[in-house]
TrEMBL record:
It comes from the Bacteria. It comes from Enterococcus hirae. GO terms for molecular function: DNA binding. This is HTH cro/C1-type domain-containing protein. InterPro entries: Cro/C1-type_HTH, Lambda_DNA-bd_dom_sf. Pfam families: HTH_26. Residues 21-60 form the HTH cro/C1-type domain.
Length: 70
């Protein structure tokens, strides 16, 4: 899966610290999501981000099927 947090924040001229202050999600978690390092993001975390940004989950997260290693 791929997330679009960095793209959305960039378009809106927002910083990770803005999301942290508004949602209470830790800066470490937000930074990991921002840089595509997060592996298991909790659904409630994603929903808080979506609520703050006023976007549907499908705008924040994209599913990319894995390519077969045949």
């Amino acid at each position: 899966m791929k997330n679009n947090l960095s793209k959305i924040l960039g378009e809106r001229l927002l910083k990770v610290s803005d999301v942290f202050k508004a949602t209470g999600i830790s800066k470490t978690t937000l930074t990991d999501i921002y840089y595509q390092r997060a592996k298991n993001i909790q659904l409630d975390t994603l929903m808080k981000i979506c609520d703050y940004l006023q976007v549907p989950l499908s705008d924040l997260i994209e599913y990319e099927p894995q390519k077969n290693k045949a």
